[in-house]
Amino acid sequence: MALTKSSPLLRAAVGAVAACGLYQARSFVSFAGRSAATSSPSQRQLQGLRRAEVVEAPATSTVEVESYEFQAEVGKVMDIIVNSLYSNKDVFLRELVSNAADACDKKRFLALTESDTPPEPMKLRIRTDKDKRLLIIEDNGVGMTKSELIDNLGRIARSGTANFVKQMGQGEADVSLIGQFGVGFYSCFLVANKIEVVSTSFKETEADRKPIRWVSEGSSFTIQDAPEEQLFGEQSGTKLILHLKEEAQEYLDSGKLSDLLKKYSEFITFP
Prior knowledge:
The chain is an alpha+beta fold. The protein contains six helices and eleven strands. The strands form two sheets. A nine-stranded antiparallel beta sheet has the order 1-5-6-10-7-8-9-4-3, covered by helices on one side. Helix 2 packs parallel to helix 5 (161-169).
C-alpha cells in the first residue's frame, strides 16, 4: 500500500481480504450483535440498552438525533480503556484494520450467496486531517443498518466477554487480546476521545440505503441520519472518524502509520 508523504491523505487499496473465518473472530462492522428476537427492530426492545432521550435537532434541520446509554458491560469496558495506562496503544489500529477487512469479506460472501448484484472491488482507505487531529479509516464493506449500529456498538453479546471485562477491571487481562472477545472496536478509545461511525448497509435494498451516523465520547452514544455524508464505497461501507487525543498525535504521521500497517498486514492483502 502506498502512502503519500506530501499529502495528508493516506490511501490503501485492498484487493482481497481476510478469510471469512476472521469475520466470526473480529468484526467491527458486524461483530457480536445479534437480534434477541425474530421481530423487527421497531417492535422489539433493545436488550441491555436504554434510550435516554430524543434530542431536538436545530430549527434548520429535520434530522432526529436519538441518544442511548451503553449497556452496563460496555460502560465498564469504556471506563477501563479510557483510563488505561496500557502502553501498547498501537493495538487499536490492528483491531480497526482487521474489522474493516472482515466487513469487506462479509460483503463479498453475501454478494455471492444472497444477492444478484456483484460487489464492487473491495478497498480500504486510511487518511488524516492534521489540522483537526482526525484519523479516518474507510472501507466499502458490508456496512451496518441503524439497528445494527445500536446493537453491535451498544452492547456485548459474546460468551466469555463478561469474564474478560472483569479481569480487565482487576488488571489481570491482557488488553492486546481485546479483539478475541468481540470488543476490539472499543480499543480506539485508547487514542481518541470521540468516535464517529458513518455506515450504509449492503443488506438494504438500493432504494433504502442511506448513511447513518453513530457518535460517542465514551459515556453514551447518539444515532441520526447523515444524508450529507459521502462514503468511500458506491454500494455500501463504513467510515470511522477518530478525534485523537492530544497525546496521540503520532498516529497522524505517515511514517508511523506505514510501519504499523506493514506490521499488521496479516489482516489484509495488498494488490
